Amino acid sequence: MSIKVNIRRQENADKEPYWQSFEYSGERHVSVATMIDAINGDIAASAKGGERPIEWECSCEQGLCGACAMVVNDRPGLSCQMFCDELVQEQPEIRIQALSKFPVVCDLVVDRSEMFEAMKEMKLWLEAPAKVRPVNLPLQYEVSQCLMCGSCLEACANYSLGEAFTGMPTAMSALNLTLMSENKAYKKQYTKRVYEGCSKSLACQEVCPMDIPIVEAVSKMNRISVWSMWNLFGKRKQPVGMTGVNIE
Amino acid sequence: MNKIVILGSGLSGLTAALKLAMQGAAVTLVSPAYAERSQSVMAMGGINAALNTKGEDDSVEQHFVDTMQGGSYLNDPEAADNLVRMAPELVHWLAELGVNFTRDEAGRVDLRNFGGQKKKRTAYAGARTGKQIMAAVIAGCRKYEADGTIERLTGWRFHSLILEGAQCAGAVIIEERTQALRSITADAVIMAVGGPNGVFGHTTGSRLNDGYAAGALLSQGVEFANLEMIQYHPTTVHTATKQMLITEAARGVGGRLYVLRDGQPWYFMEEWYPERGALMPRDVVSQSIYKVCNELKLGINGGQTVYLDISHLPKAVIDSQLDEVVSICRTYLNLNPYEEPIPVAPGIHYFMGGIKTDKHHRTNIARLFAAGECSAQYHGANRLGGNSLLGAVCGGVVAAQSAGAVTGIGSAVADVAGRRALAAAAGELERWKGTAPSPLSDYTAVRRELSSLMYGSMGIYRKERELLAARKRIAELEQRAAEARHPYSYYEDRTLYANLLLAKAMVESALERKESRGAHQRTDYSEKNDRQFKKPTNARVAGGGIAVDFG
């Protein structure tokens, strides 16, 4: 029996989006990425010819590069890590669309450049050789796994293009750099561009394809960048709403 | 300061960009996608350096010997010597750049065993060394991107070299999605485009490494070396998507290879090679698996796979060093490697051959340099695990030194050549647009046939009859490709031509090497022949075909 797959398509940024349905009848335990390939194979082989294959981004095909992030059954993630057999257990049809927080370039391809621009604006780089504190290495390692795929920003209630809030990709980098340097600039940037805009819904951690311990990371960053200053001002009580994330 | 164009933002291209930017050179970094998407992030195992911190009396000399032996002495000895001597300093540089290397009890960069090496020499960062290195180098480059020293052109690919007489004056690039063309003149060009995975398809690497650039460079007169040397990594797993790599680290920490013989596990590598067992160089392990499956017919269910067992290893070791292996097995194979053995088979993983470069990473064309997997000099006939990340970083550093030291080309001359090259490219694109499109299926059929032809004729064992048949079939496919015009993508259309040309050069190189050495094993010439063939193959376009010689 085949699976009905609904894909939101858009020829380019200026054209109207539309939904198109496909039937997929191949192997079930395949990733959505592999299924899209198969659908494109069918399109290529179809007698009609001329039909445009589905455009999507892809590099490693195994969850290491972040290229293929998209929204499948209303959940953002890497298409190479979401499996058709598991998806059809939730609902009979599979629904695929591009990440909605970024401008569509074509079909499932979006322009994620704003994420990369934010990293530059926040000056997220080392200015001095890294200091190694072995106790911090496991967390530094985890936060450095960020793929810059954008899944967390898609799930985030606070992120939208062009706003000051830059979300977790910048937070993870800011923490990594803070832990390996004496530089306070990362904390300032974090406070301004992440802390002040984050409403702590923690949807980011749930969708992160690398399972980065975002709650732990944010909690640590808050402790060293925000609350340490708070304490300096003699206001010992934690800000309202932050208690929930201080798991340490 | 010099103006340099770098094609590719994997580890070698990014390293070159960073080093050049630190010297103040103006860098244009062209890549099909962000650096986070590059194949370098997939490298898991580690990076070799004779740091000698394990009390094993290691040295750069021993690293050199292992690298040369592993490569069956086809490596450029001067380049390999430079590689191993620079390695310790490069690892320290990466650590200072912020790479989160796993540390030993004393806080030093930890080292572990890898194939083809007798000493613990492979530095690593958990289970994802490539990703961790890339994260730090990306952050390093970010500073120079922010101040404009590095200009990024993302979504663009190499189209052709701008040639001015015998020298390179820049590159014409193409935006894949829009097919827009652009010329960038420069004092030097560094190719860092990765291995030509696209010629075969379904390799362990990235799909972005489509092999276009290599074929296009070959057609423009760039010389290639050792194209017949293609690494079949012994432990890959078949998934519905592709062959996925099970890192050599699995054997490095004690994973064992076996098949069932008379109902009992037979650890064939340990019996055949008692000293290093499953940690022999990759070519030897892959050839052993081939023998077990094809000559002894002991593959799992009579097929081409054998078991890789890590289930006896301490859980803590698997958790901390092999979590990627666990993830691949669970996600794509529905298999629990803590309890069950993993069925593995050799799969294409790395191209030792590529653009012929010397120890300075110079090519046969002035002002053109190459680094990383696309260039050939360090690895000879077989690459050691842990030497690819090293080769990428080292190549980036050396190519940056060389490119940074060229004299200015003179912008007037370069501009004229650039305009001429762009006009030629645009003219060709216009002519292409004027030809009648074919159904996409015609195009994909040629591509599919090329893939199966290459896997068939350029496998672990090769023979003349099959190679001659491949030569003939490629000529036929070239004819069909000329008729099967891609319906909408000029770039993909050109990529097929480029892949066919490179495939031809691979087959011709394999035909000429009438011996068995490293990754090139001939059933009809089963012995190594040092007298005639202890030297690299050189392939170039000549007289409408491919000419191959040695030296």
Using brief descriptors, characterize the structure shown.
heterodimer, A: 248 residues, alpha+beta, Ubiquitin-like (UB roll), Fumarate Reductase Iron-sulfur Protein, Chain B, domain 2, 2 domains, two-stranded antiparallel sheet, 9 helices, disordered C terminus, B: 551 residues, Flavocytochrome C3, Chain A, domain 1, Methane Monooxygenase Hydroxylase, Chain G, domain 1, six-stranded antiparallel sheet, five-stranded parallel sheet, 24 strands, 40% helix
CATH class of the domain at 231-349 in chain B: Alpha Beta
Q: Could you give me the name of the CATH homologous superfamily of the largest domain in chain A? A: Alpha-helical ferredoxin
The strand order across the widest sheet of chain B is 13-12-17-16-14-15
Q: Which parts of chain A are unreliable, with pLDDT below 50 for 5 consecutive residues or more?
A: 238-248
Question: How much helix is in the residues of chain A?
Answer: 25-40%
Q: Which descriptor suits the 3D outline of chain B?
A: globular
Series of H and E elements of chain A: EEHEEHEEEHHHHHHH
**CA-atom Rg of chain A in angstroms:** 21 Å
Number of helices of chain A: 9
What overall geometry of chain A do the principal axes of the alpha carbons give? elongated
Instruction: Please tell me how large the radius of gyration of chain B is.
Output: 23 Å
Number of helices of chain B: 16
Show the largest interface. Answer: A-B, 61 and 52 residues
How far apart, in Å, are the first and last alpha carbons of chain A? 50 Å
The assigned structural class of chain A equals alpha+beta
Report the major sheet of chain B.
6 strands, antiparallel
Summarize this, please?
The complex is a heterodimer of chains A (248) and B (551). Chain A is of the alpha+beta class and 248 residues long.
Description of the structure:
The complex is a heterodimer of chains A (248) and B (551). Chain A is an alpha+beta fold. Chain A has 2 domains: 3-110, Beta-grasp domain (Ubiquitin-like (UB roll)); 113-245, Alpha-helical ferredoxin (Fumarate Reductase Iron-sulfur Protein, Chain B, domain 2). Helix content of chain A is 35%, strand content 12%. Chain A has 9 helices and 7 strands; from the N terminus they run ββαββαβββααααααα. In chain A, β1 (3-9) and β2 (18-24) form a beta hairpin. By secondary structure, chain B is an alpha/beta fold. Chain B is built from 16 helices and 24 strands. Chain B has helices at residues 11-22, 60-70, 77-97, 129-146, 212-219, 249-252, 268-272, 282-295, 315-321, 323-333, 387-404, 411-434, 440-457, 464-483, 490-512, 530-533; strands at residues 3-7, 26-31, 47-48, 111-112, 122-123, 150-154, 156-164, 167-175, 181-185, 188-191, 224-225, 230-238, 243-245, 256-261, 264-266, 306-309, 342-351, 354-356, 368-370, 375-376, 461-462, 521-522, 537-542, 545-550. A 6-stranded antiparallel β-sheet of chain B has the order 13-12-17-16-14-15. A 5-stranded parallel β-sheet of chain B has the order 6-2-1-10-19. The longest helix of chain B has 24 residues, at 411-434. The chains are: A alpha+beta (248), B alpha/beta (551). At the A-B interface, α1, α3, α4 and α6 of A face α3, α4, α10 and α13 of B.
